[in-house]
Amino acid sequence: MKFVVVFDLDGTLVDSVELHAKAFKFAIKSLGYKNIEKLYKKYKKLTGIPSEEIIKILIPNISSNEIKKIRLLKDKYFVKNIGKIREKKKVINILKELKQKNIKIALFTSSSKKIAKMILKKFKLEKYFDYLVCREDVKNPKPNEEGLIKIMNKFKTKNLVFIGDSKYDKLAAKNAKIKFLNVKELNKEKIYKILGID
């Protein structure tokens, strides 16, 4: 049985959750919002869904124009500080070994294509992925299963294993009726057993 292994990006392959939250904090501070610390802490807890969705939850009745302003400032800060992100070596080593064994690998992230590609380029990971599904590629983001269905259609298989770190990743996998592995519990033995490889 051929499997496709799908990786989440933020918090799974790289330690970027904190930077996303700090970038959001910078954006709302620049725009004169109040309760910044409170909003920053709440943002961290919601990481895993797209920024726009988090902003809508944290700032009710916000206009789409204001969301755009926050998003632009947030992305600017994130890109400027991208050097502070660290890779999760253990996870990346597993990713590389899977590629050596000719396993098809996809990325499913709530980040924009621009940010995702920058992160992959920074850690020289582009060549390990056969397919990317980013924020712009779906109408319904995580925890909706649309991105995972897209990957199924691309590889013409329902045999997916999704490796992620958030409850939204887990829910997306559940909605798509596929196997989910929390990155905290990920090891070579576990993934190899699921994939049926030595």
Protein architecture, described:
By secondary structure, this protein is α/β, with parallel strands linked by helices. The protein has 2 domains: 4-15 and 86-195, Rossmann fold, CATH 3.40.50.1000; 17-83, DNA polymerase, domain 1 (Orthogonal Bundle). It has helices at residues 17-30, 36-46, 51-58, 64-80, 89-100, 113-122, 146-155, 167-176, 188-195; strands at residues 4-7, 14-15, 86-87, 104-108, 131-133, 160-164, 179-182. The strands form 2 sheets. The protein has a 5-stranded parallel β-sheet, with helices on both faces. Strands 2-3 form a two-stranded antiparallel sheet. Helix 8 links the parallel strand 6 (160-164) and strand 7. The mean pLDDT is 96.
- What oligomeric assembly is this protein in? single chain
Percent range for β-strand residues: 5-15%
Write down the Rg. Answer: 17 Å
The total of beta strands comes to 7
What's the average pLDDT?
96
Write down the CATH class of the largest domain.
Alpha Beta
List keywords for this structure.
two-stranded antiparallel sheet, 2 domains, 5-stranded parallel beta sheet, 198 residues, DNA polymerase, domain 1, alpha/beta, Rossmann fold
Question: What's this entry about, in short?
Answer:
This protein is of the alpha/beta class and 198 residues long. It is built from nine helices and seven strands; from the N terminus they run ββααααβαβαβαβαβα. It folds into two domains: 122 residues, 3-Layer(aba) Sandwich (Rossmann fold); 67 residues, DNA polymerase, domain 1 (Orthogonal Bundle), CATH 1.10.150.
